[in-house]
Amino acid sequence: MLRSCTAGLRSLWALCGRREGAPRLSTDLPPAPRLFSTEKVIHKDWSLPNPSWSKDFKLLFDQFMKKCEDGSWERLPSYKHRSTQKSEDFKTYFLEPKLVKEERVSQVQLFTRGFEDGLGFEYVIFSNNDEKRTVCLFQGGPYLQGIPGFLHGGAMATMIDTALGSCAAIPGGIVMTANLNINFKRPVPICSVVVINSQLDKLEGRKLFLSCNVRSVDEKTLYSEATGLFIKLDPEKSLT
Ligand SMILES: CCCCCCCCCCCCCC(=O)SCCNC(=O)CCNC(=O)[C@H](O)C(C)(C)COP(=O)(O)OP(=O)(O)OC[C@H]1O[C@@H](n2cnc3c(N)ncnc32)[C@H](O)[C@@H]1OP(=O)(O)O
């Protein structure tokens, strides 16, 4: 069933745009930044270098920024709280505001950006729209450890999903992961930098088939290979 865009958006704004001092429904949660308050919006772009980035990471970042100069490549900004147009559309079409309580909505943030600088997922994604591919530079911090000394497989899977999903979103717009297959070939040392190369292999109606590989910066080590199926969401269908 197609929900009314404006009604959905209005209710979401009503939930998120609570004014300073207005009563909360519950007080047992710590204060958290609000999502869409017109008074206080957090605009920080988390895909820019910070002091935790290693020398390798910064070097690669600079190389890709150079590639962006002629317009063939583009750095994708990444926000913890502020929504991109795509995620706005997502909410407008597919979210039922009543499912999430007000204080929970105010705590919502992007999973991969929920850590302090350097401790979790440090990454930036560059996209080449003509070639329908992306490159994700990723440094997994100390809070992402699995087997001692190495990155947790789930953290790697998260970044693969994010990289493939961002690549799928170039032609697909609002997409969701339907299937993800990963071959873990070598463990990734904690705090090291890896490069995730993703590409769109096939587009079949609403289905987008993608693949990626995860390599060391010197390209000598192949850490993982993965394929993913992403589905372009149908605004006529409810997700719940
Ligand atoms: C967008 C926001 C952007 C924000 C920016 C942040 C970027 C960060 C990126 C973060 C990234 C994080 C990303 C995340 O965390 S996404 C979160 C994890 N994923 C989910 O929770 C998805 C759960 N699944 C669903 O909701 C539905 O199944 C979806 C929506 C995917 C499809 O349900 P829908 O009702 O719409 O479609 P359909 O069922 O008619 O199927 C359509 C076609 O697809 C085929 N099919 C379906 N499933 C499979 C399957 N498993 N293998 C093989 N084929 C499959 C199916 O046979 C059919 O084919 P055909 O008969 O037409 O040939």
TrEMBL record:
EC number: 3.1.2.2
Membrane topology: Peripheral membrane protein
Keywords: Apoptosis, Cell membrane, Cell projection, Cytoplasm, Fatty acid metabolism, Hydrolase, Lipid metabolism, Membrane, Mitochondrion, Mitochondrion inner membrane, Transit peptide
Coiled-coil intervals: none
Keyword Lipid metabolism attributed: yes
Superkingdom, taxonomy of origin: Eukaryota
Reactions performed catalytically: octanoyl-CoA + H2O = octanoate + CoA + H(+); (5Z,8Z,11Z,14Z)-eicosatetraenoyl-CoA + H2O = (5Z,8Z,11Z,14Z)-eicosatetraenoate + CoA + H(+); hexadecanoyl-CoA + H2O = hexadecanoate + CoA + H(+); tetradecanoyl-CoA + H2O = tetradecanoate + CoA + H(+)
Pfam family, one: 4HBT
Subcellular locations according to the entry: Cell projection, Ruffle membrane; Cytoplasm; Mitochondrion inner membrane; Mitochondrion intermembrane space
GO biological process per UniProt: fatty acid metabolic process; negative regulation of phosphatidylinositol 3-kinase/protein kinase B signal transduction; regulation of mitochondrial membrane permeability involved in apoptotic process
Family: Belongs to the THEM4/THEM5 thioesterase family.
Name this polypeptide is given: Acyl-coenzyme A thioesterase THEM4
Organism, scientific name: Moschus moschiferus (Siberian musk deer)
